[in-house]
Amino acid sequence: MESLYLVGVALLALLGLIFAIVLFNFFGLWLRARIANAPVGLGKMIGMRLRKVPVGLIVDNRITAVKAGLEVPSDPLEAHYLAGGDVTQVILALIAADKAGISLDFNRACAIDLATKGTGKTVLEAVRTSINPKVIDVPNPSMGRTTIDGVAKDGIGAKVKARVTVRSHLDRFVGGATEETIIARVGEGIVSAIGSADSYKDVLENPDRISKAVLAKGLDSNTAFEILSIDIADVDVGDNIGAKLQSEQADADKRIAQAKAEVRRAAAVAVEQEMRAKVQEMRAKVVEAEALVPQAMADAFRSGNLGVMDYVRMKNVEADTSMRQSIAGTDKPQAPQTS
After folding, report:
1. Are 65 and 95 within 8 A, CB to CB?
2. Parallel, antiparallel, or unpaired: how do β-strands 134-138 and 225-240 relate?
3. DSSP-assigned states of every residue in 203-219
4. Which residues contact residue 290 at a Cβ distance below 8 angstroms, ignoring those fewer than 6 apart?
5. What is the dihedral of CA 294, 295, 297, 303, to 10 degrees?
6. CA 82 to CA 78: how far, in whole Å?
7. How many Å apart are CA 314 and CA 320, to the nearest integer?
8. Closest Cα to residue 322, out of 307, 337, 335?
9. CA-CA distance, 144 to 138, in Å (whole number)?
10. Collapsing DSSP states into helix, strand and coil, what is residue 237?
11. What is the rounded (10 degree) CA torsion for 99, 101, 105, 110?
């Protein structure tokens, strides 16, 4: 009996110790939640501690939501924390949306929070942007460009700076395109609007035509934002692109013509060299033929077809011809002497 009595006392002491530990760790949080009409059971708190969920964070955010008129149970808050979300940002975003009259439920707020994780943005910022629209510079100076450049039909360029006022579209925030897409689409629309103008003067006189043309394209479709207005902040005259292109085309045509002329010159030089080679070849043949004359004359002497008087008359004719050429001053070479 004494053994059973001691075991019972030990069990009671153990239970009392456990109860004391629970009260020490969770009674303050439990009491604070109970007083705020946002009760969280002790059993749930113990379960949170076992799942390594910060109990104070969940309880405090539930109290904040209840005091703001939102009924958010502790289980969804715990689940969102375990999913890697920011519970505090979600509760603050829900409160801000509720006060501004924007429809935003807890699940969508959690989805937006998880979607913006790692991007440097928060669900609270998305809600605030939906309440207070933000202004985006087009182009973004951080991207290395300061103006959007377009060319009118007369060939003269225009440089434009625009400011786009946008508001977050919470229904499309998850999966919607970001600010970079807005900037790219607006820039494309500005270039198209400038290109459709007959003259750069039309762009300078009526810059609002660019805003109207860009807004009419519905550039905010499938994005996380709704474009409220597009304001042209500055318009400057750019380079005369048409004249520059014509000058470059003229230079290119000149280089092509020079290349073709060089080809023709090279072909003419080749033909000239070929003709010179042929002349040299003909001269060689003439020299070769002239070399055969003395041999033919010798053969004629031996065969009796040529006499001494015939040879003397031929020499006299050659001498007379050489004298006449000397008197006339011609540069023609004398006929070779035969022996």
Report:
1. yes
2. unpaired
3. HHH-THHHHHHHHTT-T
4. 336
5. 160
6. 6
7. 10
8. 335
9. 12
10. strand
11. -60
pLDDT digits (tens, 9 = 90+) for 281-332: 898 888 888 888 888 878 887 787 777 777 778 788 888 888 888 888 755 5
**Phi, psi torsion values for 226, nearest 5 degrees:** -120, 120
Q: What size, in residues, is the chain?
A: 339
For residue range 145-174, list pLDDT tens digits in order: 888 888 888 888 888 898 999 988 888 887
In this structure, the number of other CB atoms found within 10 A of the CB of residue 37 comes to: 9
Domains along the sequence of the chain with CATH: 2-130 (no CATH), 134-242 (3.30.479.30), 307-339 (no CATH)
Give the tokens for residue 46.
Answer: 């113990």
Nearest alpha carbon to residue 333 among 293, 287, 292 = 287
Q: What is the pLDDT of residues 275-287, one digit of tens each?
A: 999 998 898 888 8
Map tokens 């207005």 to a residue: 229
CA distances from 260 to 216, 257, 265 (A): 51, 5, 9
Q: Where are the beta strands (DSSP E) in the chain?
A: 134-138, 148-151, 156-168, 225-240
- Asked if 185 and 219 count as a contact pair (C-beta separation under 8 A), the reply is yes
Tokens of 119: 């991007």
pTM of the model: 0.61
Helix H or strand E segment including 41: none
Contact call for residues 166 and 220 (beta carbons, < 8 A): yes
State the distance between the two ends of the chain, measured CA to CA, in whole angstroms: 168
Tell me the C-alpha distance between 3 and 60, whole Å.
Answer: 47
Residue indicated by tokens 């509720």: 98
Average pLDDT for the chain: 83
Residue type for position 131:
I
Contacts for 239 with CB less than 8 Å, ≥ 6 apart: 156, 157
Best CA proximity match to 160, nearest among 139, 142, 134, 184: 139
Residue with tokens 């979300």: 85
Q: What confidence score (pLDDT) does residue 338 get?
A: 45
Q: Which two tokens stand for residue 250?
A: 């003229």
